[in-house]
User: Fold these one by one.
Assistant:
Number 1:
Amino acid sequence: MGNHAVVNQPPPLLEYNVFAADRPLREAVRREGAEWAEDRIAAVGAFAGSGHGQELGRLANENPPKLKTHDRYGNRVDEVEFHPAWHELMAVAVANELHCSPWKDPRPGAHVARAAAFMCMSQAEAGIGCPISMTYSVVPALRTQPELAAEWEPRFFSSVYDVRNQPAPGKDGALAGMGMTEKQGGSDVRANSTVARPVNGGGPGAEYELTGHKWFMSAPQCDAFLVLAQADGGLSCFLFPRWTPDGERNRFRLQRLKDKLGNRSNASSEIEFDAASAWLVGEEGAGVRTIIEMVNHTRLDCTLGGATGMRAGVAQAIHHASHRSAFGTTLVEQPLMRNVLADLAIESEAATISALRLARAYDESLAGDEEATHLKRVANAVLKYWITKRAPMHAGESLECLGGVGYVEETGMPRLFRESPLNSIWEGSGNVQCLDVLRAMVKDPASLEAYYAEGAAAEPRLEAFVAALREELPGEVETIEVRARRVVEHMALALQASLLVRYGDEAVADAFCASRLSGEWGQAFGTLPAGVDFGRIIERHAPVA
Ligand SMILES: Cc1cc2nc3c(=O)[nH]c(=O)nc-3n(C[C@H](O)[C@H](O)[C@H](O)COP(=O)(O)OP(=O)(O)OC[C@H]3O[C@@H](n4cnc5c(N)ncnc54)[C@H](O)[C@@H]3O)c2cc1C
């Protein structure tokens, strides 16, 4: 019994398929060669949008992992305890092989299929993306050392999520992590001070002992990690397993878990190695070259993560505005709100289709397409920079579309907001990505031409924009580093515009070109010019199948 009726509140956005309801994503999956995987992606999408999937995400986020350093007898155990919701989410992700499918079952479109399913799954909870992404990404780096790959790949390719903390050979499945960042340097990994001493002469595939620390090592519950350490021959990449081959706990200590802004369901640890056993992957001194194969794939997932957050925000914003009235009409009919919603939707669509195009470049590159390899080299850094950089602003504006309740935890919007800066920071922060674009242009000049080829389309505003970009790049060589963010932003906009013009919705492409390329735009979302077809854009992005 109450003293008032609850009215003018939207129904919960639950029991909907986040894939089926995402037109730009569905179109991109077909266009980029993964139509064959639609049923599987849709199954993940149904789970992620279900009441149960959403509830698991809420529980995993609200019950962060706890570090357990010792057992009751005082023995070190160095374990992390998770809420059952985390485990259930992980089990779904692993059962759907989001951690391995393109390697286990390589075929055209495999990376695109996995990318789309990863985007769907992350809408239940983004935190699980970390160990899933690292396991997916470890494979190409580990293949540098074929005998280690042969031993570990069958474990990583299992679709069984096995949480047992025991030696990997007795488990039904295994997961991988990565340790590069140390206290004195994360971007500049050459500053790593962890030392690797050969046990028996050393060399590729041989055993070493690691002594030192890592300042950030996420998902420390994983079974094995690629870590960087200084060997006599320089910075090198090692496979560090949680247990030694003779069945002993490896010699490491989990010191702390980080108390993070967001991504709270995922454990990020500080760790110390105390003569821990590890095996050299590749040559001594080739650490960065080896582990970069892993980083190139986690970076793709950061870009996908940025696009995912935008899609989730747009879905919530349009849903709320469609069911909430103010001043006599629903919010979605108010002209200024239509401008905000359409602007958010355009940003989201540009992010989704460019991220999926990038995923296709991974497929093509593996199939031996040189043009795609060049494109991937530069587009990876350009899109990681721009899409993840736009995410926090986008999440903040989506949140505001819900009004005051958007600031309240129950809506999930604060969780989305807190998660949003992360993909820009890890796996190389914004400036590092921009500097990487400059490096790519110098080391692989063909990458820039491949980029221009993909960033072209018969659209006068885009042609003028690209002509200006060609003048900017490299422009004055002495100032290129200081101009790098601006240049990379323009590269991202050109690529997104080209894809939208060629493959996207006409109204979205037109509004994108008018605002992002021709300057008919302000500095906040909701500043599109008056002629835009707002209704069509909003309808296209409404979270209904
Ligand atoms: C939640 C979370 C989980 C993480 N998990 C892991 C993990 O599992 N494994 C792991 O190895 N690391 C992990 N990291 C670490 C992350 O990758 C690093 O924090 C990141 O690479 C930046 O390194 P740093 O913190 O040392 O910052 P710094 O390298 O000190 O950089 C600080 C700032 O300076 C900028 N900068 C650096 N160099 C330049 C330059 N030359 N010119 C201009 N600007 C520059 C950077 O862009 C950044 O904005 C995690 C981080 C977070 C937040």
Note: The chain is about 50% helix and 15% strand.
Number 2:
Amino acid sequence: MIRVLGYNGRKVLGVTSNHMKIDFANLQYQYQLYKAEIDTAIHKVLDNSNYIMGSEVNELERNLQIFTGAKHAITCSSGTDALLLAMMALDIKPGDEIITTPFTFIATAETIKLMGAVPVFVDIDEKTYNIDSSKIEAKITEKTKAIIPVSLYGQPADMDTIVTITDRYNLKVIVDGAQSFGSTFNGITDSNLGDISTTSFFPAKPLGCFGDGGAVFTDDDTIAEKIRSLRVHGQSKRYHHKYIGMGGRMDTIQCAILDVKLKYYAQDLALRQEVAEKYTQTLQGRDLILPSIDSRATSAWAQYSIRIKNRDEVQAKLKERTIPTAIHYPIPLHMQECFSYLGYKQSNFPVTEKVCKEIISLPMNPYLSNDKIEYICKEGI
Ligand SMILES: Cc1ncc(COP(=O)(O)O)c(C=O)c1O
């Protein structure tokens, strides 16, 4: 039976049962919360049947612009395609080098390779798990064209140093904000931190649709116009193709769903922050490493990831108690088979390699109640 529970001032739907049922991202619950509005939005699209580039696409883009303050918000088919569109817009060519982190989801470096460019990895900072900005300059060569910092787990990288470096060497910055929509650095939203910023609306992301989706943000009118064209096969007008582009649009139905969820997103971010604080308060003093947020940043808390020496044992114990966890990420990108041609070796990036062995992500969603957080921390860890 689903009922509405009042919990710490938060509106929480609960399933009455003797078991402590814990969901990792709790997508079903979120749908139940906004069901009436989402169903209406979907049916409106079904009724007018404008499934591709319907008016809901423009409406969502306008609301994303307002939410982020970016001059241009361009929706696209996924966070992966958002990265591709960003690199295509910057005219990244075969042989160009792009500096990034080896501690991220494969898409960040996979898209660099798909462009024919070379991913050049830099180890991570031991506190934030983002690219170590003090090690970037040593990797810059004549061929370097751009840096792609990733805002891992929801927290932007050290953008002060990164932008100083890119200005000095005349490089471009593409922020991979797939996990960090709505986070900030020096009070600036993640979507405005690079020449181009990207995000993902994959269902489990902090702001997710009900399928694949993503967006590209920029203040540059020329880049924005090019990206809008690239996402429809480089078209300038119907059947006139200025660029080699791609089929990279976000479906109208997904835009309609996301537009409903965007209205509540500021509230979701505040709830995620509360959940993170409750975890930190409950786990403080234990023999483990808690997340560390830079004083200049706020996190979107895509994940609440801790480091613990006996990680695999802890994960097994949590599984026994049906508490879901995830490892983001067990194998660093420089050790992935698909990148063996780059010639990196074990021990090239010691911080990344250590963190990969110790990291574990605990259930994280805006609706995780305090008693569930206490149960996870007391029973499982
Ligand atoms: C850091 C990062 N970049 C890119 C992506 C790709 O996003 P999508 O799954 O929407 O293609 C993801 C998705 O998990 C991600 O975490």
Note: Residues 27-48 form the longest helix (22 residues).
